Amino acid sequence: MQITIRGHHLTITPAIEEDIRLKFSQMTKHLDQINSMQVKLSKDHQIDKHSKKGSDNHIAEAIIRLPGIEMFAQASADDMYTSIKKLTEKLKRQLHKHRKMQVEYQPLLV
């Protein structure tokens, strides 16, 4: 499986890259159909007028390509590690749903 990690308005540190690779490999170890993954990390520099802080300004997005289907998820939080965690949780739910549908709709062999 090929994982592409890009950063927009931030530098991808080795720690962030290792965290992404670890979480995504754990998430997909039981699903060998994945062709490729693209992960985009970005930081929005908007500041909230009331708190003078950026709220949910670390954004993580991912596209997973399987044969015949693409899955997309996006998550945001106050720090990058939390947004990556939220992103993996969303993708786990999507992959579980996809796997469940595959099992349910397989033709029965007689």
From TrEMBL:
Protein name in UniProt: Ribosome hibernation promoting factor
GO biological process: negative regulation of translational elongation
Assembly notes: Associates exclusively with 100S ribosomes, which are dimers of 70S ribosomes.
An MF annotation (GO) of this entry: ribosomal small subunit binding
Keyword Cytoplasm: no
Highest taxon of the lineage: Bacteria
Cellular component aspect of the GO annotation: cytosolic small ribosomal subunit
Family indicated by similarity: Belongs to the HPF/YfiA ribosome-associated protein family. Short HPF subfamily.
Statement: the UniProt record of this protein carries the keyword NAD: no
Keywords: Translation regulation
Annotated source species: Acinetobacter kyonggiensis
Upper taxonomic lineage: Bacteria, Pseudomonadati, Pseudomonadota, Gammaproteobacteria, Moraxellales
NCBIfam families: yfiA (TIGR00741)
